[in-house]
Amino acid sequence: MQKFTSKIINIREEGSGDIVPGYRVFVRDDGVSLVFYPVPKNANSSFKSLLARHYGVESLLEFYDDEYSRKNVERYAKKPENKPWLSDFLPSKRRFHDLRSVRVVYRIGVLRDPIDRFFSAYNNRVLWHEDLEFRGLSVGEVICELERGNFENKHFLPQTYFLGTSPSYYTHLAVMPDLTPALSGIQEFFGKDIALPRLQVRHGESKALVESHENFKSRLMKVYAADYEFIQRASSRSEESERA
Q: What is the residue range of 68's domain?
Protein backbone atom coordinates (compact mmCIF):
# COMPACT_ATOMS: atom_id res chain seq x y z
CA MET A 1 0.00 0.00 0.00
CA GLN A 2 1.37 3.39 -1.01
CA LYS A 3 2.33 5.95 1.60
CA PHE A 4 2.30 9.68 1.03
CA THR A 5 4.19 12.73 2.18
CA SER A 6 3.75 16.37 1.22
CA LYS A 7 5.97 19.41 1.09
CA ILE A 8 5.64 23.08 0.25
CA ILE A 9 7.73 24.19 -2.71
CA ASN A 10 8.81 27.80 -2.40
CA ILE A 11 8.96 30.07 -5.44
CA ARG A 12 10.35 33.51 -6.19
CA GLU A 13 7.50 35.99 -6.40
CA GLU A 14 7.42 37.94 -9.64
CA GLY A 15 7.96 41.64 -9.12
CA SER A 16 9.17 41.70 -5.52
CA GLY A 17 11.61 38.81 -5.92
CA ASP A 18 10.58 37.52 -2.48
CA ILE A 19 10.74 33.79 -1.78
CA VAL A 20 7.23 32.69 -0.80
CA PRO A 21 5.36 29.39 -0.28
CA GLY A 22 4.31 28.40 -3.79
CA TYR A 23 2.62 25.01 -3.97
CA ARG A 24 1.97 21.98 -1.83
CA VAL A 25 3.32 18.92 -3.62
CA PHE A 26 2.14 15.44 -2.65
CA VAL A 27 4.67 12.62 -3.04
CA ARG A 28 4.05 8.87 -3.10
CA ASP A 29 6.65 6.52 -1.67
CA ASP A 30 7.45 5.43 -5.24
CA GLY A 31 8.62 9.00 -5.91
CA VAL A 32 5.68 10.04 -8.12
CA SER A 33 4.36 13.50 -7.20
CA LEU A 34 1.20 15.60 -7.68
CA VAL A 35 0.41 19.29 -7.57
CA PHE A 36 -3.01 20.93 -7.73
CA TYR A 37 -3.06 24.50 -9.02
CA PRO A 38 -5.63 26.44 -6.92
CA VAL A 39 -7.80 28.97 -8.75
CA PRO A 40 -10.21 31.07 -6.66
CA LYS A 41 -13.87 30.26 -7.39
CA ASN A 42 -13.01 27.13 -9.43
CA ALA A 43 -14.22 24.59 -6.85
CA ASN A 44 -11.12 25.67 -4.95
CA SER A 45 -12.25 24.99 -1.36
CA SER A 46 -13.84 21.71 -2.44
CA PHE A 47 -10.59 20.44 -3.94
CA LYS A 48 -8.57 21.59 -0.93
CA SER A 49 -10.92 19.60 1.28
CA LEU A 50 -10.71 16.59 -1.06
CA LEU A 51 -6.91 16.60 -1.03
CA ALA A 52 -6.90 17.01 2.77
CA ARG A 53 -9.19 13.95 3.00
CA HIS A 54 -6.93 11.90 0.73
CA TYR A 55 -3.93 12.94 2.78
CA GLY A 56 -5.75 12.20 6.05
CA VAL A 57 -5.60 15.64 7.66
CA GLU A 58 -9.08 17.08 7.04
CA SER A 59 -10.06 16.83 10.71
CA LEU A 60 -7.03 18.95 11.62
CA LEU A 61 -8.18 21.89 9.49
CA GLU A 62 -10.91 24.48 10.07
CA PHE A 63 -13.42 25.93 7.59
CA TYR A 64 -16.10 28.46 8.54
CA ASP A 65 -16.83 30.14 5.23
CA ASP A 66 -20.15 28.43 4.45
CA GLU A 67 -21.58 29.13 7.91
CA TYR A 68 -20.07 32.50 8.74
CA SER A 69 -19.13 35.47 6.62
CA ARG A 70 -15.59 36.79 7.01
CA LYS A 71 -17.12 40.02 8.26
CA ASN A 72 -17.98 38.06 11.43
CA VAL A 73 -14.60 38.90 12.91
CA GLU A 74 -15.48 37.71 16.40
CA ARG A 75 -16.45 34.22 15.19
CA TYR A 76 -13.31 33.81 13.10
CA ALA A 77 -11.18 34.97 16.04
CA LYS A 78 -12.46 31.97 18.05
CA LYS A 79 -10.74 29.45 15.77
CA PRO A 80 -8.61 27.08 17.88
CA GLU A 81 -4.96 28.05 17.57
CA ASN A 82 -3.94 24.44 16.88
CA LYS A 83 -6.24 24.14 13.83
CA PRO A 84 -4.97 25.86 10.66
CA TRP A 85 -7.47 27.14 8.10
CA LEU A 86 -8.41 24.80 5.27
CA SER A 87 -7.76 27.76 2.94
CA ASP A 88 -4.08 27.68 3.94
CA PHE A 89 -3.62 23.96 3.28
CA LEU A 90 -2.63 24.78 -0.30
CA PRO A 91 -0.86 28.14 -0.69
CA SER A 92 -3.27 30.25 -2.73
CA LYS A 93 -3.39 33.17 -5.14
CA ARG A 94 0.07 32.55 -6.55
CA ARG A 95 1.01 33.53 -10.07
CA PHE A 96 1.57 30.43 -12.22
CA HIS A 97 4.93 28.73 -11.84
CA ASP A 98 6.14 25.84 -14.00
CA LEU A 99 7.07 22.83 -11.86
CA ARG A 100 8.43 20.53 -14.55
CA SER A 101 11.96 21.35 -13.41
CA VAL A 102 11.25 19.56 -10.12
CA ARG A 103 9.63 16.65 -11.98
CA VAL A 104 6.09 16.91 -10.67
CA VAL A 105 4.31 14.15 -12.61
CA TYR A 106 0.61 14.89 -11.96
CA ARG A 107 -0.18 18.54 -12.75
CA ILE A 108 -3.87 19.22 -12.16
CA GLY A 109 -5.97 22.29 -12.86
CA VAL A 110 -9.62 23.38 -13.11
CA LEU A 111 -11.11 25.92 -15.55
CA ARG A 112 -14.46 27.69 -15.41
CA ASP A 113 -16.50 29.90 -17.71
CA PRO A 114 -15.17 33.40 -16.89
CA ILE A 115 -18.58 35.06 -16.59
CA ASP A 116 -19.94 32.35 -14.29
CA ARG A 117 -16.77 32.68 -12.25
CA PHE A 118 -17.08 36.46 -12.07
CA PHE A 119 -20.62 36.33 -10.68
CA SER A 120 -19.61 33.59 -8.24
CA ALA A 121 -16.77 35.80 -7.01
CA TYR A 122 -19.06 38.81 -6.75
CA ASN A 123 -21.67 36.95 -4.72
CA ASN A 124 -19.16 35.24 -2.46
CA ARG A 125 -16.49 37.88 -1.93
CA VAL A 126 -18.41 41.17 -2.28
CA LEU A 127 -21.91 40.30 -1.05
CA TRP A 128 -21.25 37.44 1.40
CA HIS A 129 -17.79 38.07 2.85
CA GLU A 130 -17.76 41.84 2.14
CA ASP A 131 -14.05 41.88 1.34
CA LEU A 132 -12.46 45.29 1.93
CA GLU A 133 -11.36 45.20 -1.71
CA PHE A 134 -14.49 46.16 -3.70
CA ARG A 135 -16.71 46.31 -0.61
CA GLY A 136 -20.06 47.91 -1.40
CA LEU A 137 -19.45 48.12 -5.14
CA SER A 138 -22.14 47.15 -7.64
CA VAL A 139 -21.49 44.62 -10.41
CA GLY A 140 -20.93 47.46 -12.88
CA GLU A 141 -18.54 49.24 -10.55
CA VAL A 142 -16.47 46.10 -10.03
CA ILE A 143 -16.26 45.61 -13.80
CA CYS A 144 -15.07 49.22 -14.13
CA GLU A 145 -12.28 48.48 -11.65
CA LEU A 146 -11.24 45.38 -13.59
CA GLU A 147 -11.30 47.30 -16.87
CA ARG A 148 -8.90 49.79 -15.27
CA GLY A 149 -6.60 46.92 -14.36
CA ASN A 150 -7.44 46.97 -10.65
CA PHE A 151 -7.36 43.35 -9.45
CA GLU A 152 -6.67 44.23 -5.82
CA ASN A 153 -9.26 41.60 -4.94
CA LYS A 154 -7.35 38.63 -6.34
CA HIS A 155 -10.45 36.46 -6.56
CA PHE A 156 -11.25 38.38 -9.76
CA LEU A 157 -7.88 37.84 -11.44
CA PRO A 158 -7.96 35.99 -14.80
CA GLN A 159 -7.53 32.25 -14.53
CA THR A 160 -4.40 32.49 -16.67
CA TYR A 161 -2.75 34.34 -13.75
CA PHE A 162 -2.97 31.11 -11.75
CA LEU A 163 -2.80 28.48 -14.52
CA GLY A 164 -0.50 30.03 -17.11
CA THR A 165 -1.38 29.99 -20.79
CA SER A 166 -0.60 26.44 -21.92
CA PRO A 167 -3.27 23.72 -21.52
CA SER A 168 -0.69 21.12 -22.59
CA TYR A 169 1.24 21.77 -19.36
CA TYR A 170 -1.45 19.95 -17.40
CA THR A 171 -1.74 16.18 -17.23
CA HIS A 172 -5.32 16.50 -15.95
CA LEU A 173 -7.31 19.62 -16.80
CA ALA A 174 -11.03 19.92 -16.04
CA VAL A 175 -13.47 22.49 -17.39
CA MET A 176 -16.39 23.06 -15.02
CA PRO A 177 -18.96 21.70 -14.57
CA ASP A 178 -17.27 18.44 -15.68
CA LEU A 179 -14.63 17.87 -13.01
CA THR A 180 -13.97 14.27 -14.05
CA PRO A 181 -10.45 14.79 -15.47
CA ALA A 182 -9.17 16.46 -12.29
CA LEU A 183 -10.91 13.97 -10.00
CA SER A 184 -9.64 10.97 -11.97
CA GLY A 185 -6.07 12.25 -11.74
CA ILE A 186 -6.31 12.62 -7.96
CA GLN A 187 -7.99 9.24 -7.62
CA GLU A 188 -5.31 7.58 -9.76
CA PHE A 189 -2.50 9.18 -7.79
CA PHE A 190 -3.85 8.28 -4.33
CA GLY A 191 -5.30 4.95 -5.41
CA LYS A 192 -8.72 5.53 -3.86
CA ASP A 193 -12.02 7.17 -4.70
CA ILE A 194 -13.31 9.86 -2.33
CA ALA A 195 -16.31 11.97 -3.28
CA LEU A 196 -15.68 15.66 -3.86
CA PRO A 197 -17.21 17.70 -1.01
CA ARG A 198 -19.29 20.70 -2.09
CA LEU A 199 -18.12 23.82 -0.31
CA GLN A 200 -18.83 27.51 -0.96
CA VAL A 201 -22.07 26.74 -2.83
CA ARG A 202 -24.53 28.59 -0.58
CA HIS A 203 -24.11 32.04 -2.05
CA GLY A 204 -26.06 31.77 -5.30
CA GLU A 205 -26.85 34.52 -7.77
CA SER A 206 -29.61 36.92 -6.89
CA LYS A 207 -32.33 37.61 -9.46
CA ALA A 208 -30.87 41.07 -10.08
CA LEU A 209 -27.48 39.64 -10.96
CA VAL A 210 -28.98 37.13 -13.37
CA GLU A 211 -30.83 39.94 -15.13
CA SER A 212 -27.62 41.99 -15.26
CA HIS A 213 -25.72 39.17 -16.89
CA GLU A 214 -26.32 40.11 -20.54
CA ASN A 215 -25.68 43.81 -19.95
CA PHE A 216 -22.15 43.14 -18.77
CA LYS A 217 -21.30 40.07 -20.85
CA SER A 218 -19.39 41.82 -23.65
CA ARG A 219 -17.31 43.83 -21.17
CA LEU A 220 -16.40 40.78 -19.14
CA MET A 221 -15.46 38.86 -22.28
CA LYS A 222 -12.88 41.57 -22.99
CA VAL A 223 -11.55 41.58 -19.44
CA TYR A 224 -11.15 37.81 -19.52
CA ALA A 225 -10.18 37.41 -23.20
CA ALA A 226 -7.06 35.39 -22.30
CA ASP A 227 -9.17 32.97 -20.26
CA TYR A 228 -11.52 32.37 -23.19
CA GLU A 229 -8.55 31.69 -25.45
CA PHE A 230 -7.11 29.25 -22.90
CA ILE A 231 -10.44 27.41 -22.56
CA GLN A 232 -10.81 27.19 -26.33
CA ARG A 233 -7.35 25.64 -26.69
CA ALA A 234 -8.04 23.28 -23.79
CA SER A 235 -11.30 22.16 -25.42
CA SER A 236 -9.58 21.64 -28.79
CA ARG A 237 -6.88 19.58 -27.09
CA SER A 238 -9.53 17.43 -25.40
CA GLU A 239 -11.34 16.83 -28.68
CA GLU A 240 -8.09 15.82 -30.38
CA SER A 241 -7.35 13.35 -27.57
CA GLU A 242 -10.79 11.78 -27.94
CA ARG A 243 -10.27 11.31 -31.68
CA ALA A 244 -6.81 9.80 -31.25
A: 4-243
